[in-house]
Amino acid sequence: MISRYSDQTKKIKEEEIEEAAREIKNGNLVLFPTETVYGIGANALDAEAVKKIFIAKGRAQDNPLIVHISNIQMLEDIVANIGVLEHKLIEKFWPGPLTVIFQRKSKEVIPNVVTANLDTVGIRMPSNLIAKELIEKSGVPIAAPSANVSGKPSGTKVEDIISELDGKVAYILDGGLTDIGLESTVIKVENNKIDILRPGKITKEQLEQVVEEVEIDKHVLEKVEQNEVVSSPGMKYRHYAPNTKCMMIYSKVEEEMIDKINEVTNQMKQENKKVLVIGKQERLDSYIADEKWNMGKTLEEVAKNIFTLLRKVDKEQVDLVILEGVGEKGLGLAITNRLIRACAYNYIVV
């Protein structure tokens, strides 16, 4: 069943969230919005329910899930300890788009299927009111990866994901377009420093307001080998990718980036191949591509738009999609992380 409502229709919202919560309690899957992207969720304490997520998404079993909570008591019930630094991070960034890796209490509390057999578990408290109420009414933490078939771009609105997930979940809560558009920042605290495993809306610069030493895991911009163990989703497997071949091109010098994009486009045209460029509005007229799409003016707009745009490209029947790079400063790191994975590491930095 699909539910559509806005935050203004409080009565309808309460009734439908209660119905979705019943499905969670009954061991079924619910598609729901968060402030980052849509999630496909199940009772995190129910191993059989969580297994349904992997089946619905076609997700690899060694790819851990993030557990969503609505209050600190839930956190204390499922993790072994909360350090001083973790408390500071919680106070500053929760509820919000930050996932923290903790030691789990035991596999009897959080089953192995959630953590990919690791002793750690990623936890976050979403700020989206629909998500928070769903967790509260369910009375259990909810394990939820992004709502999409594994490998495809994450869902930022129900219209983009309904065709691939309808029939695979018991209930769909349609909260409209998500606020951020990229998955949460995932961090791990070790030896009084923060390691960013997956960048997101909460940036390195913001984390440095809490602790001086913040490192970016090498796998944020590099491939993870098949035999490597990862403690965060979004690190190991092909992600965010359309079927159409993509390439990211970036330069700090605008003219150099434009020239390189046009050079690659011209090479493709000489082979009678069609090119789509996705870039910022102010540069689109400079490109010679067959198709040109606007990704947004600001990094926030790019983050909100990029998954929807990537989902549309397969309908265009082009031979190559060229994506403008955005650099690695601030939110740009998270966007770059998604773009290079969407391109299967096919990128050029001029």
List keywords for this structure.
350 residues, alpha/beta, eleven-stranded mixed sheet, 11 helices, globular
Short summary:
By secondary structure, the protein is an alpha/beta fold. It is built from eleven helices and 16 strands. The longest helix has 17 residues, at 254-270.
Q: What low-confidence regions span 5 or more consecutive residues with pLDDT below 50?
A: 2-12
Compressed to H and E, one letter per element, the order equals EHEEHEHHEHEHEHEEEHEEHEEHEHE
Number of strand elements: 16
Helical percent range? 25-40%
Global morphology = globular
Mean pLDDT: 91
Please explain how this structure is put together.
The protein is an alpha/beta fold. It is 32% helix and 20% strand. It has an eleven-stranded mixed sheet, with helices on both faces. The chain has a five-stranded parallel sheet with strand order 14-13-15-12-16, with helices on both faces. Strand 10, helix 8 (204-207) and strand 11 (214-216) form a beta-alpha-beta unit. Residues 2-12 have low confidence and may be disordered.
Question: What is the secondary structure topology, with strand pairs?
Answer:
Elements: E1 2-4, H1 10-25, E2 30-33, E3 38-43, H2 47-57, E4 66-68, H3 72-78, H4 84-93, E5 98-103, H5 112-115, E6 120-124, H6 129-138, E7 142-143, H7 158-165, E8 171-174, E9 185-190, E10 193-198, H8 204-207, E11 214-216, E12 246-250, H9 254-270, E13 275-279, E14 291-294, H10 299-312, E15 320-324, H11 332-342, E16 347-349
Parallel strand pairs: 1-8, 2-8, 4-6, 5-9, 10-11, 12-15, 12-16, 13-14, 13-15
Antiparallel strand pairs: 2-3, 3-7, 4-7, 5-6, 9-10
Helix pairs in contact: 1-6, 10-11
